[in-house]
Amino acid sequence: MSHKAVNWALEQRHLKPGPWVVLIQLGDRHNKDTKQVSPCQLTIADDCNMSRATVNRRLEELEGLGLLVRVPRQHPVTQKKLVTHYILGLDFKNPPEVEHAVSQVETRQKIAAAEAHVSKCNMDAKSQTETRKRRGKNKNMGEGRVSNCNTETVSQNPQEPCLKNGENHVSNRDINQVIKPVIEPCAASASHSSDLIFDDFCELFLEVFPRTGNRDLTIAELSKLIDAGEDPEHLIAAAKAYADEQEGNKAQYIAMSENWLRGMRWKTYPKPQSETEKREIILAGRAQAIKAKQSWVVGAISAHQAGELVQMGLVTAKDCKAAGLDL
Fold first, then answer.
1. Which residue of 38, 62, 161, 167 is surrounded by the most CB atoms within 10 Å?
2. H helices then E strands: how many in the chain?
C-alpha cells in the first residue's frame, strides 16, 4: 500500500463514483518502492464489489481521462497473456520498467498522450474559469439588480374562472394519462442464461486460455456454445486444464482459442463436479467403508453422520453396529 498513491486517487474528486472507487483501489495496491500496480481483474472486481465487465469499462474511462495507462504483458516463451500492469498518473514523470510488456515504445507513447490530455484539460478548465470571472465582472458593472421593474403579472395566460364545486380540476383526462415506457429485452443477454454474465465469462475464458487467437471469433464461438446449452463452468475448467498441459510448450504448438472451441476439444476434459455430486460421492464412500467394516470408520465417522446414512437408506443400523459405530 502507498499512502501517496491513495491520497492522489482521493484528490480526483471530479470523477464519478465508479471510476473513483476503482482508482482508489489501484492506489491501495500501489507499491511505494517499486511503483508496481498489477492486480488481476478478478482481484480489482472483488475489491470494488463490481463485475469484471464493469471494472473493464471503468478502467477504459480512467485511461481516457489520462489518469492511468494500462500496459498489456505477454510471456516471452509461451506468448500467454499475463496480468495487466497499471501505471498511475502520479508516476508518469518517472514511470517504472514493466517486465514482459508487449511494447515499451507503445507504453511511452500512451504516457505522453495521457500527459498531453491532462495538460489540455487543465488549460481548458483555467480558461473557462477566467471567462466566467470576466462575464461576472461585466455583469456587475451593468444595470442594477432591478433596473426596469414593471407591474405586469407573471403569467400572461388568460384568466379562467374557478371551477364550481364538485367539478374535476382535470377537464381532459386523456392528456394526463401516465404512459408507461416500453421495456425492450436486452440484446446482449437475450440468448444467454439469466444467471450468467456473458462478458465476464468471456473475459475469464480469454484470461485462462493459453493462446488467444482472434478475440471476436472466440467470443462468437463461446456464444454459440452457451446458446446450445453447454456448461460455462465446464468450458472454463477445460481451458484451465489445457493451459496446464501446455505449460512450457512453444506457442506454435498450442491451439488458438477459436479453433480449440470450434474443434470441440474441450469435451475431452471431464466436467467439473457440482457440490451436490461431490457430497454424493463422499456419502457413498462412507457407506461402502461401513459395509466393508473398514477399521478407519471408527473415530472418522460420527454418530450423526452414520445416522444420516441410515436415513438415506445407504446403510442399515445393523451395518453400523457391525462396523463398530454407535448410533
1. 62
2. 13, 2
